[in-house]
Amino acid sequence: MFATLDTSSRRLRFPREREVIITDTVGFIRNLPKDLMTAFKATLEELEDADLLLHIVDVLTPHFEQHIESVENILEELHLLDKPRLLVLNKTDKLEKGEAEKLARRYHAVAISALDSSTFQPLLNAIEERVFLPWRTPVKENLTEAIR
Questions:
Q1: Which of 39, 98, 109, 126 is buried deepest, with most CB atoms within 10 A?
Q2: Residue predicted with more confidence, 91 or 135
Q3: Residue 145's pLDDT is what?
Q4: In the predicted model, what is the mean pLDDT of residues 35-40?
Q5: How far is CA 39 from the centre of its chain?
Q6: Phi, psi of 110 (to 5 degrees)
Q7: How far from 90 is each of 54, 74, 93, 111, CA to CA, in Å?
Q8: 8-33 pLDDT tens trace
Q9: Helix/strand/coil percent split, the chain, to 5
Q10: In angstroms, rounded to a whole number, what is the distance separating the alpha carbons of residues 59 and 80?
């Protein structure tokens, strides 16, 4: 919790001379008091301008499914459910063989490990599809249904 306190942005270059700006926002926090939630939402105003929302989930966190659902609920409160989203499951190198693929299918996600660079290409491909080829990917994914 609170690993990212300030937003930061970086440029990412894709093949064919395409570039995107990736912004790391403050993490989503569940069950905040109402007054803190208002301040928290103000830090997420940048999301309104995003072409794609990447939701990075630590699959080793107990009850990570509840974290996914909490983020979906916050996105709904912020009226951002119509934004294209990509769920990214991180730390999959710590899972049993085959478990990462099962979770990725279940949640319509991309499984990665920050320690395994071979997992980055599928992530970059998914980002490229959603940003540069939006007609090939549905805009809305009902992640809440996948959780249940």
A1: 109
A2: 91
A3: 53
A4: 69
A5: 21
A6: -110, 130
A7: 12, 21, 8, 6
A8: 788 888 777 788 888 887 666 666 66
A9: 45, 20, 35
A10: 24
Which contacts of 21-26 are long-range, i.e. CB under 8 A and separated by 24 or more positions? 22/54, 23/50, 26/2
pLDDT band at residue 139, thresholds of 50, 70 and 90?
A: very low
Model pLDDT, residue 27: 67
Q: Nearest 5°: CA angle at 68, between 51 and 132?
A: 20
Q: How far apart are the first and last CA of the chain?
A: 24
Whether residue 137 contacts residue 129, with contact meaning beta carbons closer than 8 Å, is answered with yes
Tell me the C-alpha distance between 20 and 122, whole Å. Answer: 17
Could you give the CA distance from residue 148 to residue 146 in angstroms, rounded to a whole number?
Answer: 6
8-147: CATH topology: Rossmann fold (3.40.50)
Q: Binning pLDDT at 50, 70 and 90, where does residue 1 land?
A: very low
- Cα–Cα distance between 125 and 40 in angstroms, integer? 31
44 burial class (0-12, 13-18, 19+ CB within 10 angstroms)?
A: middle
User: CA 134 to CA 84: how far, in whole Å?
Assistant: 9
* Claim: this prediction has a pTM higher than 0.85: no
